[in-house]
Design brief:
Elements lengths: L5 E3 L3 H13 L2 E7 L2 E7 L3
Antiparallel strand pairs: 1-3, 2-3
Length: 45
């Protein structure tokens, strides 16, 4: 994944699950709408 990439999800629950999964592998995201995340940082773990 690269910084600025938009991740679209079907449900709000999926947004939260995806954010937590990505955070575990060192990818930081921010919420930009009810069903979208944006990658803001990618760290090597």
């Amino acid at each position: 994944m690269k910084i600025g990439e938009i991740i679209k999800c079907a449900t709000l629950e999926e947004v939260f699950r995806k954010a937590f999964e990505l955070n575990r592998v060192g990818i930081k995201t921010e919420f930009i709408s009810s069903n979208e995340l944006r990658v803001v940082a990618v760290n090597a773990v």
